[in-house]
């Protein structure tokens, strides 16, 4: 932050002075500080240092706003992890710290509550041994553009980690209790599905009880259960995760928000929303095009 003198009216400036003001300012060199956290720096217009201290939430939040940190239910608090070194050391140049968080974009008209969420990205240590894992993927609710692309990337990434047993559950939550219908997913089988519509797993809205589903997942040895769906789907996923913890079963339940309605709290935009908006605009434009020549509008 620089404390600048009152600006000179541009009308009183010569052309050369106006061009100089329009130039991009040089990159400022960081000040030496005795702490590792981001710094809050205030200088006067001549570059004299006025303040140098650790950056605090109050320095970036709008007046009266509250910073709220949202935590993920960490399995390692309940079950001892394997602490396996990540096999992605040759792919990932920099791992994300365990306690890294991302803050919502802040402006002066931000809401009273600003959220902080765990920063996504690869961690250096894994909770499970990938080669011993069974992973499942299921799509629930209505169809949405991009479902096959999400399934593809899940399978590709799990395979990179070394997971050898990946199953796609057909028919939404109904298919969870029918393991004989599960289909094995491999990188080669999902290679081109992102160019296909709908979902190869066949989405459905009905579901058995969370008790039945969690028991089947335990019987099948599932350690990672990926659920793609909306708010109702995620409520069911939460119940399943809690039931498996109560039964002392170490299983990670991962929810992937999916809804063309864009009605999941704290998300700026869910995938599929933009395509729905484009389709709506196209319908309105077509209606106007065909109605304008009509005499009885």
TrEMBL record:
The keyword Metal-binding applies. This is ATP-dependent 6-phosphofructokinase 1 (ATP-PFK 1) (Phosphofructokinase 1) (Phosphohexokinase 1). GO terms for biological process: fructose 6-phosphate metabolic process. Residues 1-33 are annotated as: Disordered. Residues 136-273 form the Phosphofructokinase domain. It comes from the Eukaryota. Keywords: Kinase, Magnesium, Metal-binding, Transferase. Pfam families: PFK. One of its GO terms (molecular function) is metal ion binding. Its cofactor is Mg(2+). Residues 20-32 have a biased composition (Basic residues).
């Amino acid at each position: 932050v620089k404390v600048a003198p009152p600006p000179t009216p541009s009308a009183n400036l010569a052309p050369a002075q106006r061009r100089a003001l329009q130039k991009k300012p040089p990159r400022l060199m960081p000040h030496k500080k005795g702490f590792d956290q981001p710094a809050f720096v205030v200088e006067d217009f001549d570059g004299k240092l006025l303040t140098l201290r650790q950056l605090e939430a109050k320095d970036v939040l709008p007046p009266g706003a509250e910073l709220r940190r949202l935590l993920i239910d960490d399995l390692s608090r309940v079950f001892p992890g394997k602490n396996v070194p990540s096999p992605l050391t040759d792919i990932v140049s920099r791992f994300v710290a365990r306690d890294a968080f991302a803050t919502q974009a802040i402006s002066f008209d931000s809401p009273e509550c600003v959220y902080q969420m765990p920063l996504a990205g690869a961690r250096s240590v894994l909770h499970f041994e990938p080669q011993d894992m069974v992973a499942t993927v299921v799509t629930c609710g209505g169809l949405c553009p991009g479902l096959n692309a999400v399934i593809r990337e899940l399978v590709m990434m799990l395979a990179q980690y070394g997971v050898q047993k990946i199953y796609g559950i057909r028919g939404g939550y109904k298919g969870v209790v029918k393991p004989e219908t599960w289909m094995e997913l491999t990188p080669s089988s999902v290679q081109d599905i992102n160019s296909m519509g709908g979902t190869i797993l066949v989405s459905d809205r009905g579901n058995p009880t969370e008790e039945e589903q969690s028991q089947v997942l335990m019987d099948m040895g599932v350690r990672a259960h990926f659920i793609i769906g909306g708010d109702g789907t995620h409520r069911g996923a939460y119940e399943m995760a809690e039931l498996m913890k109560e039964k002392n079963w170490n299983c990670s339940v991962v929810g992937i928000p999916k809804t063309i309605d864009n009605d999941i709290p704290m998300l700026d935009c869910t995938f599929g929303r933009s395509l729905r908006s484009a389709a709506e605009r196209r319908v309105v434009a077509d209606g106007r095009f065909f109605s304008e020549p009509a005499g009885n509008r």
